[in-house]
Write a structure and sequence with these properties.
The complex is a heterodimer of chains A (about 375) and B (about 350). Chain A is of the alpha/beta class and about 375 residues long. Chain A is built from 13 helices and 14 strands. In chain A, about 30% of the residues lie in helices and about 25% in strands. Chain B is α/β, with parallel strands linked by helices and about 350 residues long. Classes of the chains: A alpha/beta (about 375), B alpha/beta (about 350). The structure holds adenosine-5'-triphosphate, adenosine-5'-diphosphate, iron/sulfur cluster (2 copies) and magnesium ion (MG) (2 copies).
Chain lengths: ~375, ~350
């Protein structure tokens, strides 16, 4: 038996990826837009006490991840993407980190109120994590196989032998050749792409409801990135796992996500279904980002850069954090921080200016 | 702007229209092998064939993009071209001077004309030097300017790259990544070079800042009549900035063509896979794309396969491919490829 109770994959089959008889665990046709929340985050605030002062990394973030949904999270470095997602499972170092407010509802309970031993069961069990640099999150002195079986033994009631067989199946599933042999390898013996596939195998081991992937392909070459993305797409189709995929690559998000959150200065500044976001970006930052990107499929015009620098986060926002770089900024932007509000079905933006009608969104 | 450099004559031609003819740099049969040493006696047990026989020309005023995956040898090509590391075999001819056989002193005399901008704006600037001394260093070494002329030149350079000249006495850590990259560009153009190797100059920058630096490089190219080798793994940006593109794989250039030819009708199976792997920031386009997914990884350059370097991953490889190395040939005007079956 394999890790989800299907017959074990025989070798010839596994040469083909993905194995043909691996069945979807959910009936087809109920994908997406069923909008049953898997994870509900409300007003999350995380700060770091540093020598230079308090860093306000996450400033009141609220969002919902639906079951089976693929949620992309984009934003430049330092915008709070990683700290937001790590805070959900209290994976930030505390101290210096501190979660000042917020609730994270998952399976009927607020994760932020759980004791550490209960949280540990959720981490790597119902919620899997994939990090940017697999070297820092894989244990260098344990074989790949042992790292997978350890997780299975911790989170399921499989015996050691069942776990061993499941580990091999998992490596096959993520497209690692010679899976049986590779179980005995140590992380440093693998290439970057292989290590990232091992991370995915570990994240998948306990059939999580949610996988959070933090820039999982940023360090990889594009041909290897394409391999990983294909695997994740397939797996999601088959298992119905919801995925949060953090990246700064708007190309990757375009092909993968159902919905996208755009972060800037520790806040969500725009939230939309993927096609709406690219066709009708409403926030000046999102608009600027899309105009600053070259495209491989088109001979482009001049790139329009966003002038100015990303901001530092030493004060909680009392104005729009994008105002110093925004060409639409007006009085209100420096007086009051905009709040995320719905401007169309499933489309939210935090901006005082309506760039379409070219007037303020509200009379102030 | 830069008075002494504004004197340069021919303006760079518009993108994609560089006239073949005026070759500024010519690379022929270039190899760079690094020895692998082992044991107490440091015996050589093999070599890393980082660059394994590449030939190409760079025309005056153009940008040649050099793409390929990590470890394929891009930076090594750039470093050998500037003689920052000696070639193992082959020649590099810069404006009539064959560099690999020149004595070091004569290479040094040519140095002001060939410069480099590095990937990592943190590592490539000395943290204990002020911006003024970082930019002033090449001026001091190669020109005999008075102190006040040098300061003037530094201020001028800072404003050319879009930095505040009054910040000349600040240290690198006081600048953002994008600003640090501008400092690196200012240093590279300080001596009015003809040729600059830009080695992943935007890879460490945020998306919103990348366009700033790329636009600066394009503007300087026009104003100062510069020729670039633009090394990058960002194919979309190369499509935007380059006139011609060379694709490297495992120490070899496998295809070279004008930017439109290369991306619109790639001939080499590796270029085809590479193009298909790059995501496009458009959900509608992405939804209908069919990808060529390559299997496995690039082999180690310490142990390359026989025959065609791509044969271990090539979707259309045949027995011949592991026996016979494909010839580097021009299949249509200016479109070069190394594959037995390309046509
Ligand atoms: N000084 C050195 N000694 C030994 N091997 C080296 C040295 N410099 C480079 N190499 C090897 O040569 C090969 C080509 O390296 P190079 O840095 O040119 O690749 P690259 O294409 O620039 O990669 P990246 O995209 O990662 O910058 C690699 O296998 C690298 O490990
Ligand atoms: N351990 C830490 N100590 C202090 N500041 C931190 C720490 N981790 C993150 N930060 C700060 O929090 C902010 C958000 O960081 P992060 O979530 O990692 O950004 P992103 O993932 O979007 O690049 C940044 O300003 C960062 O410097
Ligand atoms: S709130 Fe004002 S400053 Fe902020 S993005 Fe909107 S228009 Fe620009
Ligand atoms: S020569 Fe053979 S292996 Fe090499 S690219 Fe062409 S078909 Fe593929
Ligand atoms: Mg991060
Ligand atoms: Mg390099």
């Amino acid at each position: 038996m394999s890790w989800w109770g299907q017959p074990t994959i025989d070798d010839e089959e596994s040469l083909r990826y993905p194995p043909a008889h691996v069945q979807s665990r959910r009936p087809s046709g109920i994908r997406l837009s069923q909008n049953k929340p898997a994870l509900e985050v409300t007003d999350l605030k995380t700060v770091f006490d540093t020598q230079d002062g308090v860093v306000h990394a996450v400033n009141g973030v609220s969002f919902t991840l639906n079951e089976g949904e693929f949620l992309g999270v984009v934003g430049e470095s330092g915008s709070g993407k990683s700290v937001t997602m790590m805070s959900l499972l209290k994976l930030i170092p505390m101290p210096p980190g501190r979660i000042d407010s917020g609730t994270v509802f998952f399976g009927g309970q607020d994760l932020l109120t759980l004791e550490l031993d209960e949280l540990r069961k959720v981490r790597g069990g119902q919620i899997g994590f994939i990090f940017q640099d697999p070297m820092t999150s894989l244990n260098p002195v344990l074989t790949v196989g042992r790292q997978i079986t350890e997780s299975l033994e911790l989170h399921t009631d499989q015996t050691r032998r069942e776990a061993d067989a499941a580990a091999e199946d998992l490596l096959k599933l993520v497209g690692i050749p010679d899976a049986g042999q590779r179980l005995k390898s140590y992380p440093h013996e693998l290439s970057g792409g292989m290590r990232q596939r091992v991370m995915i195998a570990i994240a998948l081991a306990c059939s999580p409801k949610v996988i959070i992937a933090d820039e999982p392909t940023t360090a990889l070459d594009v041909t290897i990135q394409a391999q990983i993305i294909e695997i994740v797409k397939e797996l999601r189709e088959r298992t119905g796992t919801a995925v949060i995929w953090i990246t700064h690559d708007l190309g990757v998000v375009a092909g993968l996500a159902d919905r996208v959150l755009v972060m800037y200065g520790g806040q969500i500044v725009e939230e939309a279904r993927v096609r709406d976001l690219y066709a009708r970006p409403a926030h000046p930052y999102t608009q600027g980002l899309l105009k600053s990107l070259p495209r491989l499929d088109q001979k482009g015009a001049e790139l329009q850069s966003i002038e100015g620098q990303p901001l530092s986060l030493y004060a909680p926002p009392t104005s729009c954090s994008f105002a110093p770089r925004c060409k639409f900024a007006f009085d209100r932007c420096s007086e009051e921080a905009p709040v995320l509000e719905e401007i169309a079905p499933d489309h939210k933006v935090a901006c005082w200016w309506n760039t379409e009608t070219e007037e303020p969104r509200h009379a102030s | 702007m830069l008075p002494d450099s504004a004197a340069t004559t021919t303006a760079a031609t518009a993108k994609g229209e560089v006239q073949p003819g005026q070759v500024l740099l010519s690379v022929q049969g270039l190899k760079k092998h690094f020895p692998i040493m082992k044991g107490v006696f440091r015996r050589q047990v093999g070599s890393v064939r980082a660059v394994d026989g590449v030939s190409f020309d760079i025309y005056r005023g153009e940008t040649l993009g050099l793409v390929g995956e990590s470890g394929s040898g891009k930076s090594t090509v750039g470093r050998v071209m500037l003689q920052l590391t000696p070639a193992t075999e082959g020649t590099v001819t810069f404006d009539g001077h064959e560099l690999t056989s020149l004595p070091a002193s004569e290479v040094r005399e040519l140095r002001p004309r060939m410069q480099m901008v590095f990937q990592d704006p943190h590592a490539s600037l000395n943290p204990r030097m002020t911006v003024a001394s970082i930019i002033g260093e090449p001026l001091k070494e190669h020109l005999s300017l008075s102190r006040s002329d040098r300061d003037l030149r530094i201020e001028e350079l800072l404003s050319v790259v879009g930095l505040d000249p009054t910040h000349a006495n600040r240290y690198p850590h006081e600048f953002s990544g994008g600003q640090r990259q501008r400092i690196g560009v200012a240093r590279a153009i300080a001596l009015n070079p003809d040729f600059i190797v830009c080695d992943e100059p935007i890879a460490a920058l945020d998306v919103s800042i990348q366009a700033q630096v790329v636009n600066l490089l394009l503007k300087l190219q026009k104003d100062l009549d510069l020729t670039y080798l633009f090394i990058s793994h960002d194919l979309s940006m190369v499509r935007h900035i380059a006139d011609r593109v060379a694709v490297m794989y495992l120490g070899n250039i496998v295809e070279l063509a004008s930017v439109d030819d290369l991306f619109e009708s790639p001939k080499h199976p590796y270029t085809q896979a590479l193009r298909s792997a790059v995501p496009v920031p458009d959900p509608v386009v992405e939804a209908s794309r069919v990808r060529v997914i390559l299997e496995g990884d690039m082999p180690s350059p310490a142990n390359p396969p026989s025959g065609c370097p791509f044969n271990t991953r090539c979707p259309i490889a045949e027995p011949r491919c592991s026996e016979e190395e494909p010839e580097w040939r021009e299949i249509t005007g200016g479109h070069w490829v190394a594959c037995h079956f390309a046509e």
